[in-house]
Amino acid sequence: MVIVVFVLAAGLVGMGCVKADRVRGWRQSFNPSAPEISDSAFVAARVVLFGMAGIGIFSAFQLMAVTANGEWSDDELSSAVSQATSELNGTSRLGDIFDDGSGFDQEIAKMIEEEVVENGGGGAPQSGVDAGAAASNKPSDADYTVQAAGADAAFCVHVVRTRSKDGDYEPPGVAGGAGSVTIPKYDFAVTSREGGC
Q: Which residues constitute the domain of residue 6?
């Protein structure tokens, strides 16, 4: 689309650069009885043509900026993954009441994606990040290939999840005493490297 707008703008500039005598000659050859066109009409036509070309070029650059803001660059993704890794490393989170290790891949992948987007910076999009889980993942040791729309680079994020029993949470029971359910706490050790997992 941007190329089409630039081509149209170039065509308008080309039309505006045609000499008045040449246009009068073409007009005379097609319609000899047509009235003469004044110089002021040519000036007005040139102003309109150059103005339309300027608007087209401005619109094309705006469209390019919008497109660039909708996609990640390799540098943006690299920086965001590095910062996300630093922030996730050493964090702790409570698990689910019925945590049996299932669904850990989706939870951790979502955690990584959200952290990368959050650390993308002002120029990076607020979406388009995917953390693909490796097939060999286990609840305690997992790898995720992080990619983003528009970026060619990929990063491998390695997550070691350790149960921290001293941080488990026991919500109070209905009668106010100790509850019968324990919500487990996990500590995360997170590293990353360039390239897929």
A: 2-69
Most confident among 33-37, 58-62, 71-75, 141-145 (mean pLDDT): 141-145
pTM: 0.61
Task: Please indicate, yes or no, whether residues 8 and 81 belong to a single structural domain of this protein.
Answer: no
At residue 79, φ and ψ (nearest 5 deg) are -65, -45
* pLDDT tens string 100-123: 566 788 888 999 999 999 998 767
C-alpha to C-alpha distance for 7 and 15, rounded to whole angstroms: 12
State how far the Cα of 114 lies from the Cα of 192, in Å rounded to an integer. 16
As a whole number of angstroms, the distance between CA 34 and CA 167 comes to 93
The C-alpha atoms of residue 125 and residue 117 are separated, in whole angstroms, by: 7
